[in-house]
Amino acid sequence: MDQSARLTDYLEAGLRAAGLRQSVIADNIANMATPGFRRRAVPFEQAFAEALAKGEPVRMDGLFRHVHRPMTDPVNDIGNDVQLETEVADLVRNGLLYKTYARLLGRMYQQMERAIVTET
Amino acid sequence: MSVEEIAPMVDIAASGLRAQSLRLNLIAGNIANAQTTRTVTGEPYRRKDVVLQTTGGGLGGVTVLNIQRDSSAFRQVLMPGHPDADEDGFVRMPNVHLPVEMMNLTTASRAYQANVAVLKRYQDMVETTVELLR
C-alpha cells in the first residue's frame, strides 16, 4: 500500500510538472519576438531522477522552483534565444509525457478500485 | 519510459526542422538580395549557403556547422544607365541565380515538411503505445 501510494504521488508530481511545462513553453513561444527575452525550462524529471539516485527524499511541492532560464542557447539579433522548432518539439514531447503519466495514474486508480470492489 | 528514451527522435526531428528553417531564411535573403550591388564589403551581394554536419557519431540529428558565402564569380550585366556601371557599361550583379534559389526553396520546404511528418508519426506511435494503458 505504502509503495503504490508513493507511486501515485510521483505520477501526480510528474503530471503537474508537465502541466507547468506546457505553460512555460506557451510563454516561450508567446515571447518569440520580445527583445532580450531568454527562454525558460522545467527540468523536473532530471531533478527527480537525481534525487532518486542519491536516495534523497523527493520534494513534490513548490514545482515553480524548477523553472529556470538555461541561458545556454545562442541569442539572435534581438537578444532572444527562443527557437520555434525547439519549442514545438518540446511541446510534442511534453504532450506525450503528460499523456503517459495520466494513463499510468488512471491505471493505478483502476487497480485500486478493482481491489476495493473485490473486497466487498 | 524515461524522458531520455522519449527524447532522441523528437530531438532529431527538431534539429532537422531548425536546419531547414535556417536554409529557408538564407534562401529568402538570397532572393531578396538578387539585385543588390552594394554591401558593407564594397562588393555586390554574395549568396549564402549552410554547411550541415551530423551531430556526434551516433543518432544525433543535424547541426549547422557554419554559414558560408558562395565564392563563385559575379554576374556581369550590361546596364549602362546603372549608377554602379563601369566604363564599358557593365554592372557586377550578385552571384544569385533565381532558378537555383527556387529549386533550393522547394527542397528546403519539402525537407521541413518531411521532418514535421517524422515528428507527427512518432507522436502517433507513442500515443498508440500509451493507449495500451487504458
What does this structure look like?
The complex is a heterodimer of chains A (120) and B (134). Chain A has 3 helices and no strands. With 120 residues, chain A is mainly alpha-helical. Chain A has one domain. Chain A is elongated. The mean pLDDT of chain A is 88. In chain B, strand 1 and strand 2 form a beta hairpin. The model of chain B has no long low-confidence stretch (mean pLDDT 90). The longest helix of chain B has 34 residues. In chain B, 48% of the residues lie in helices and 17% in strands. Chain B has 134 residues and is an alpha+beta fold. Chain B has 2 helices and 4 strands. At the A-B interface, helix 2 and helix 3 of A face helix 1 and helix 2 of B.
Topology:
The complex is a heterodimer of chains A (120) and B (134).
Chain A: H1 2-30, H2 44-54, H3 84-119
Helix pairs in contact in A: 1-3
Chain B: H1 3-32, E1 48-54, E2 62-69, E3 75-78, E4 90-93, H2 98-131
Antiparallel strand pairs in B: 1-2, 3-4
Helix pairs in contact in B: 1-2
In summary, what is this structure?
The complex is a heterodimer of chains A (120) and B (134). Chain A is mostly helical and 120 residues long.
